[in-house]
Every structure is written in structure tokens, then in C-alpha cells.
Specification:
The complex is a heterodimer of chains A (349) and B (321).
Chain A lengths: L1 H38 L8 H9 L10 H35 L12 H16 L3 H26 E2 L2 E2 L1 H25 L2 H11 L8 H20 L1 H7 L3 H6 L4 H23 L5 H13 L3 H25 L8 H19 L1
Antiparallel strand pairs in A: 1-2
Chain B lengths: L1 H9 L3 H36 L3 E5 L5 E5 L5 E3 L2 H9 L6 E3 L24 H6 L4 E5 L5 H9 L4 E4 L4 H14 L3 H22 L5 E8 L4 E3 L4 H8 L2 E3 L8 E3 L2 H7 L3 E6 L15 H4 L3 E5 H4 L6 H12 L7
Helix pairs in contact in B: 6-7, 7-12
The chains are: A mainly alpha (349), B alpha/beta (321).
């Protein structure tokens, strides 16, 4: 009897795995297609066929592109698209993780003040250590520290005797967000005028100009953090029943909470350090994913990674082309798409 | 009526009473405040209607009533401070910003904050009879507060060298220094045409003006920089892009293949070529020029110094004697 039940559970796990893999492969296919399409769209018109040819040859053959055109394609556009993908994946996975962990549909890096914590960390590192080569490694580290710091503060503020209630959590998040916003305003005011301009842009999310180092960090963080959260998805499923019940079912609640917080902070820290605060990704994408694939975190978290990557790539393609050769901050586009979408989801739910 | 209200209030908890008192106090304070400002207005408009004032139009198209010969001037940008001194009206300057460091006397003048965040209280306390600002857009709430106190605000908004000359003439007229203004503009114009004559026969150099490297910012059609580059024998690759200062696409910057890069220097920032421009002909041929931001980002008399330096950088051979 017990054995029969176990094999049933095992079969269930297998079918979830199969389903997750199929969904993720489908999303990956769409993602690759989007990467190709968005790399032939841009402020500078590149010859379509030659660009495709150069892309598929992996840059080994110029396919008739001039050196400038190939620089635009491989040194500007493609790194930017990859950064958009890793930032989108990071924020969406982090959002899905927070929502499951805190049992709160509104939990999102931006709303919880965690993005702002990372932004303050990045700014502190920029103000004190400048923009040189060594500080490039320091920036994500400081952003990570800022993200951990603010998530710790939010969590402590929200935690009562009975655990963190969803309402208190959002309130604490709003308080920390507004506090950190004023810290950011303070820091930008202390900096000189020309730098302020770049910073206000950066704060709204800006995917251009990330160095190879930062891009590498963002990609590694997205993959590593995504895997960590996915591995804890089953525990998160149980914790969604309530931390007490999860504990009774054998989940090491404290450990899972710590790991998920650290993993999500890593994701948020790396993406903020490389591109500022891109809002709404962590909120809208997990909800959309849940609407279409159900609420099993084992499927939701990896699917959110791919969907988030897709969303930010599309938003950034709009941001860099719609008023070309000028540019909009990508955060403005994600908010423009994200806010109405979220209202729609709220009204439907 | 007040007594009645108090009676009814006393039946409630003391907390409510305290609250009502506070509210009443607040109402009184508001009433007093609005009264005092109402009292003030006729007084100032009275002086405004006397023969000592006249009406002029500033560069934002706004009609401003100003005294014939302002005695207490506040400037809210370094270029305006420089113009006021160049016009010989420096002794009447009672307030300027922390950015105003030229000429040296300007540093001794009372500071009212910086251009982006001037302190309204400080300005009012200085009792200026005119406040000079440059480009109105950022200062809307603030200008309203000065309007309410009937302190005239004169806006200058130059977009090219000719616009700077026009500002100097208007300010000369406004401050009663017409002769000095005519002479100043005459001199500046002569220097500018000397530069233009020197580079006239030279091949035009394409220039990218870099405001900040990452994210990449540049100057567009409406910026005096574009005009300056043209006069210095160059052509800004972003000359046709709408706007004054803007975030510019990295891709478009690469594709523009500028022969020279110009950037403003000064402050703590090092000269750093934008990543997108590092393989441009300009960077490869080491034609990257830093020109003092004090010249280039202040549309005042020293913009011509900037023009001279720019022309010498772009066409060194034209200036060899």
C-alpha cells in the first residue's frame, strides 16, 4: 500500500518534470527566436540577410558586413540582448521565489525595497570607488550586500509573533523602498550635475554600456540563482501551505528561507548592478506564468526565468528603437507594459 | 457662534477638544498667512505701476515688469554671472550660485544654492529687484513662488552663439549697460569671425560631442554645441537629432564614424572615450579633444574661448603662423 503510494508520488514527480521540460523547451525556442529577431532590429539598420548569416556563423564570417556593422551587431546589440535576457530571467525568478516564500502575490524585488537596497549598494560603490576596473567587481558585491540588507530589514520589520503577514510585509517593503529612495535622492544630489543625468537614467533601468565583466556576472548569477531556486521549488510548494505545516512535513523551513532569500538577493543584486532597477518584471511575469501553467513552483520558477528574459528583451528592443537614435530607459517600457497588464490580471483574478 | 461650538465640543472627550484647538489654530495661521500675503501684493504692484518700471519680454516669451535700472541682481547660473560681470554690472550682483566661480570676484558674492536647487528663501531674503535664470523648464514651481512675491524673473534661453550674443544685448539693455553690451558683442563677434575665416577653406571634420561616456549622452540640434562645432570647421554627427541634450544610441554612435571626439573637461571626471566610440576613426587616430567645461557648458562670453580652442583642436594647421 505504502509502496504503491510512493510510486504514485514518484510518477507524479516524473510527469511534473516532463511537463516542466516541455514548457521550458518551448519557451527556450521562442526565446532564441526573439534573440535572433531583436538582434536584426535597432537604431542602425543592418542588412538583414548578412546579419543573420553573421549571427549563425558565430561571428567567424563577416558575411559582407562592414567592420562597423559587425561591431554594432556583436559588441553592442548582442551583449545588450544577452544582458536583457539575464536581467529579465533574474528578476522574474527572484519575484517567483519571493512570492512563494512570503506567500504573498504582491512580493516583488521592487515593491519589497530589495531593488532599491541593491541600487543604494551600487551607488555607494560608485561614489566611493569610482567606475574603474576593480570597482566593476565591487559593484555587484555591494549590490548583493544592499539587497540582503534590505530584505533582512523588511523581513524583520514585518515579522510578528505569528510570522510575517502579507499586509505587514508589503507595508514594510513600502517603508524601506521610500526610505531608500530618499537615500538615493540624497546621493544623487551630492554628485555633480553631469553625473546626475546618467544616474537618473540608470535608476530607471538602462541596459546599455554594461562591460563584459558585468555581463558575465549577470549571466552567471541568473543561471546559478535560477538553479538554486528551482532546486528548492518543492520545499517552497510545501511552504506555501504555511511555514508550520511545511515544518511538520519535514521541510527545514529556516534553511530554505535563508537560501531562497540569499539566492533571490544574488539575482536582484547582479541585475541591479548591471542595469539599474527594471520594475514590474518580478511581479507580472510570475503571475502570467502561474495563470498559464498552474502554481506548482517546480514549473513556475524555471518557466518564469525564460518568460522574464523574453519580456525584458522585447521591452528593451522597444526602448532602443522607438525614438532612435535617441533612447528610452527600459524600465519605463516594462512599467508601461507591466502596470496595465497587472491591473488586468488583478481584475481577472 | 464660536461659543456655541465650544459648548458642544466640551461634551466630547478632551482628546477631541485638543484636536479642535489644534485645527482652529491651524485655520487661524492659514488665515493670517493669506491675509499678510494679500496685504503685501498691492504694495508691490503699487511700486510696479510707477514710472520706475517698464515691461519687457524675456527669451521664454513671458512679459516681465522690471525696474529701469535694477540695483539688486541675483543670477542663478554661472553663464549669467559671467555676462553680468562682463557688462560691468558685477557690483550690483547680490546673489549667485555655488557654480559661479568666474571672474574671481563672483566667488565672494552671497550664494543662493546651485543652479538645479536654488534656495527660494535665500533669494527672497536678498530682496532682489531682478532674478536672472537660464532655461525656464526646471524651475517652474520655484518661479511661481517668486512671481507671488512680485520679484521679476528674466529667463534667457540661448541655443547658439548668436543666441548668446542676443542674451548679452538684452541683458545689457535690461541692466542699463547698452554701450558695454554693444562693445562686448562686437569684440566677441570679431573673434568668432576670425576663427570662422581661418577654418573656412579647411575640409570639414565630423565630430561627436560626448557629454558622458556610459550611458552615452550627446548634444543635438538645439544645443549651442552643434553651432559651435559648425563654426569651428566641423560638423556634429548628431546635428540633425531633435533635442538639446540626449541619451544617444550606442549603435548610432558607432555608425556615425566621427573623425574627432570633443568632450568637456573639468571637475573630477577623467577624459574617457565611450565604449561604443573606442574603435571610431577619432579614437584610433587619437583625435579626442578635451575642452574646459567652463567654456563649453556655459553659454556666456567665454563660449567664444571654447570656439577658439575647438577650432585650434580640429584644424591646428589653420592657426600656425
Amino acid at each position: 500500500m505504502a509502496i504503491a503510494r510512493q510510486s504514485e508520488i514518484l510518477r507524479g514527480a516524473r510527469s511534473t518534470l516532463r511537463r516542466t521540460i516541455i514548457i521550458c523547451l518551448a519557451l527556450l525556442l521562442v526565446l532564441l527566436l526573439t534573440i535572433v529577431v531583436s538582434s536584426v532590429i535597432g537604431a542602425e539598420r543592418l542588412p538583414f540577410a548578412s546579419s543573420l548569416c553573421a549571427l549563425f556563423s558565430g561571428g567567424n564570417s563577416s558575411c559582407g558586413l562592414t567592420p562597423e556593422q559587425s561591431a554594432i551587431l556583436f559588441e553592442i546589440r548582442l551583449p545588450r540582448i544577452l544582458l536583457a535576457a539575464s536581467v529579465g530571467a533574474s528578476l522574474a525568478t527572484a519575484g517567483a521565489g519571493y512570492q512563494a516564500l512570503l506567500r504573498n502575490p504582491l512580493a516583488e524585488p521592487y515593491l519589497l525595497g530589495i531593488s532599491n537596497g541593491a541600487a543604494v549598494g551600487t551607488m555607494v560603490s560608485l561614489v566611493f570607488f569610482g567606475t574603474g576596473q576593480t570597482s566593476e567587481w565591487l559593484r555587484p558585491v555591494m549590490a548583493f550586500v544592499g539587497a540582503i540588507g534590505s530584505s533582512f530589514v523588511v523581513y524583520q520589520l514585518a515579522r510578528g509573533r505569528t510570522g510575517a503577514s502579507p499586509e505587514k510585509l508589503i507595508l514594510a517593503g513600502v517603508i524601506v523602498t521610500t526610505f531608500l529612495s530618499s537615500v538615493i535622492v540624497f546621493i544623487t544630489t551630492m554628485m555633480d550635475a553631469t553625473r546626475i543625468r546618467s544616474f537618473t537614467f540608470w535608476l530607471l533601468g538602462d541596459l546599455s554600456g554594461a562591460s563584459t565583466n558585468l555581463l558575465t556576472i549577470a549571466i552567471i548569477a541568473a543561471i546559478f540563482g535560477g538553479i538554486v531556486l528551482t532546486l528548492h521549488a518543492r520545499s517552497l510548494n510545501l511552504m506555501m501551505l504555511g511555514e508550520r505545516d511545511a515544518f511538520d512535513l519535514g521541510v527545514e523551513v529556516e534553511r530554505v528561507r535563508l537560501i531562497v532569500f540569499l539566492g533571490a538577493s544574488l539575482l536582484v543584486g547582479a541585475s541591479v548592478a548591471s542595469s539599474g532597477s527594471v520594475g514590474y518584471v518580478g511581479l507580472v511575469i510570475p503571475h502570467l506564468v502561474r495563470l498559464s501553467v498552474g502554481s506548482d513552483n517546480r514549473t513556475v520558477i524555471p518557466s518564469a526565468a525564460f518568460a522574464g528574459a523574453l519580456f525584458v528583451i522585447i521591452a528593451d528592443t522597444i526602448a532602443r528603437t522607438i525614438i532612435a537614435p535617441r533612447e528610452l530607459p527600459v524600465g519605463a517600457i516594462t512599467a508601461l507594459i507591466g502596470a496595465p497588464l497587472f491591473i488586468f490580471l488583478l481584475r481577472r483574478g | 457662534m464660536r461659543g456655541k461650538r465650544r459648548e458642544s465640543l466640551s461634551k466630547h472627550k478632551p482628546y477631541n477638544f485638543k484636536f479642535a484647538c489644534a485645527l482652529a489654530l491651524l485655520v487661524c495661521a492659514v488665515a493670517l498667512f493669506s491675509c499678510s500675503s494679500r496685504n503685501e501684493k498691492p504694495a508691490t504692484t503699487n511700486t510696479a505701476t510707477t514710472a520706475q518700471t517698464r515691461e519687457v519680454t524675456d527669451e521664454s516669451g513671458k512679459r516681465v515688469r522690471v525696474p529701469w535700472r535694477p540695483q539688486r541682481i541675483v543670477t542663478l547660473a554661472p553663464n549669467l554671472t559671467e555676462i553680468v560681470y562682463a557688462l560691468g554690472a558685477g557690483s550690483r550682483l547680490v546673489g549667485n550660485t555655488t557654480y559661479c566661480d568666474y571672474p574671481a570676484e563672483a566667488k565672494q558674492v552671497e550664494k543662493v544654492g546651485d543652479t538645479l536647487q536654488p534656495n527660494v528663501e535665500k533669494i527672497i531674503a536678498l530682496k532682489p529687484d531682478i532674478v536672472l535664470i537660464t532655461t525656464a523648464s526646471q524651475l517652474e514651481t520655484f518661479t511661481r513662488q517668486l512671481d507671488e512675491r512680485a520679484i521679476p524673473i528674466f529667463v534667457t534661453d540661448p541655443h547658439d552663439l548668436e543666441g548668446v550674443f542676443r542674451s548679452i544685448k538684452t541683458l545689457g539693455d535690461l541692466l542699463g549697460q547698452q554701450e558695454q553690451a554693444d562693445k562686448l558683442v562686437g569684440d566677441l563677434r570679431a573673434r568668432a569671425s576670425a576663427v570662422e575665416d581661418a577654418v573656412k577653406s579647411r575640409p570639414v571634420v565630423t565630430v561627436f560631442y560626448q557629454v558622458s561616456p556610459s550611458p552615452l549622452w550627446t548634444a543635438g540640434k538645439r544645443s549651442w554645441i552643434t553651432d559651435l562645432i559648425k563654426r569651428a570647421g566641423g560638423r556634429s554627427v548628431t546635428a540633425e537629432v531633435e533635442g538639446e541634450w540626449m541619451r544617444y544610441s550606442d549603435e548610432a554612435a558607432i555608425a556615425s564614424k566621427p573623425e574627432a571626439i570633443i568632450m568637456a573637461t573639468g571637475g573630477e571626471e577623467k577624459m574617457e572615450v565611450a565604449p561604443a566610440l573606442q574603435k571610431s576613426p577619432a579614437a584610433l587616430n587619437k583625435r579626442v579633444y578635451g575642452i574646459s567645461g567652463d567654456y563649453l557648458s556655459r553659454p556666456g562670453p567665454r563660449l567664444v574661448d571654447g570656439l577658439e580652442e575647438m577650432a585650434r583642436s580640429l584644424h591646428p594647421e589653420a592657426f600656425q603662423k
